[in-house]
Each structure stands twice: as C-alpha cells, then as structure tokens.
UniProtKB/TrEMBL annotation:
Official protein name in the record: DJ-1/PfpI domain-containing protein
CDD domains given in the database record: GATase1_PfpI_2 (cd03139)
Transmembrane segment boundaries: none
Pfam family, one: DJ-1_PfpI
Source species, domain of life: Eukaryota
PANTHER family the UniProt entry points to: ARAC-FAMILY TRANSCRIPTIONAL REGULATOR, THIJ_PFPI FAMILY PROTEIN (AFU_ORTHOLOGUE AFUA_5G14240)
Residue ranges annotated for the DJ-1/PfpI domain, each copy included: 4-159
Gene3D superfamilies: 3.40.50.880
Length: 196
C-alpha cells in the first residue's frame, strides 16, 4: 500500500471532532503480520479478511501491492464479499483496480491515479472510467484519483455524512487545501492517457 492512500483518509475519519461513530480497523488479506508500506512504514493489521467484523464502510487503498493482489482470485473473492456487505466503499488511487476486479462496479463511474490510469482500466473494462476527476461518487462507491486525492474524497464523504461546513472545519484544522470540486483535477493533463 501507499502510506498516504490509507493514512490520509484515516486522518479525516479518525479526527476527534469528526463527529462520526467510526472505529478504524486495518485488515490484511491473510495474516496479522505487520504490513510495510511503499514508504517503509509498517502498519499492524487488526484482522484478516476472514475474521474481520462486518464493516459499513470499506476502504481499498492503492500502491504497488495492489498489482500483486489483483491476480489473487481468493483475495478478490473475499474483498468482493466485504464490499457487498458495506454501505459505503471507497477506493484510493490504484485500489480502484482491485475494486474493478471484483466486477461490482461494472457500469459504474470511477476514477483512479492519473499516472497509472491504464492498469485499473485493464482490470475493469466494463467500468465507465472518468479521466478528469479528483474523485467520483456513483451509488455507494467513491473512487479517488492518486494518493492525496484520497484526502479530498474522504472530506467529501465526511461532508455527506455530516455537512459541508463540518468537513471544511476539519480541512481547516489540518491546514489542508481541500479540492471541493470533484472536477478540479490538476493532474489529468500531465499524463498522455488522461490528457484532453
């Protein structure tokens, strides 16, 4: 995983005054061994996909590890079951490829990291991929563009759960310049696949 993919949004949802009743659990595919992020920081999971409690909100981060797990049918099957039981599901960066691989977002609008856009698209040919978007909501699914866009999407979700004003207070508290317009995507033009 990419460290900011997971910890950026958790900074928003775990904020003391976020006023949402949310318990954050880190879940690993197979065991409770510490997981090393691409940035060499370890996170210890609380549960595996097999023994985690039911979750109303399921988050799929990206990173180079997503490419490995996209090819593991047993893991995708377990993730699919978790996504189906959730009320909300968020993918960050190339985590969109994992979500696409489940088949649950066929026909839905999604976005992903602009620098790696082609890889998730290859896993979800029946998804309506939006090339210019900081994040996209379609039904219970919210997908974000690359890495820091997960913070924008998390603030958007928090605004839906509470209010725009409340999410804006959180953004101000952490001194984050929130892209409140999902179509404000300054990175789409930087890469050939999403340009134009």
């Amino acid at each position: 995983m990419d460290l900011l993919d997971i910890l950026g949004p958790m900074r928003i949802f775990g904020e003391k005054n976020a006023t949402v009743d949310l318990k954050i659990n880190f879940i690993a595919p197979h065991n409770l061994n510490p997981v090393r992020s691409t940035q060499q920081v370890e996170i210890t999971p609380h549960y595996t996909l097999d023994n985690a409690p039911k979750m109303d909100f399921f988050v799929i981060p990206g990173g180079m590890g997503a490419r490995v797990y996209a090819e593991k049918k047993d893991v995708i099957k377990k993730i699919k079951a978790r996504v189906e039981e959730a009320t909300w599901c968020m993918s960050i960066c190339t985590g969109a490829g994992i979500l696409a691989k489940t088949g649950l977002v066929d026909g839905f609008n999604m976005t992903t990291n602009k620098a790696a856009f082609e890889w998730p698209v290859s896993l979800g040919p029946n998804v309506n991929w939006i090339k210019r978007a900081r994040w996209v909501q379609d039904g219970k699914f919210v997908s974000s563009s690359g890495v820091s866009a997960g913070i924008d999407a998390a603030l958007y979700i928090l605004s839906e759960w509470t209010s725009f004003a409340h999410a804006d207070v959180i953004a101000t508290k952490i001194e984050y310049s929130w892209h409140t317009d999902a179509n404000d995507d300054p990175f789409a033009d930087k890469y050939p696949y999403t340009r134009g």
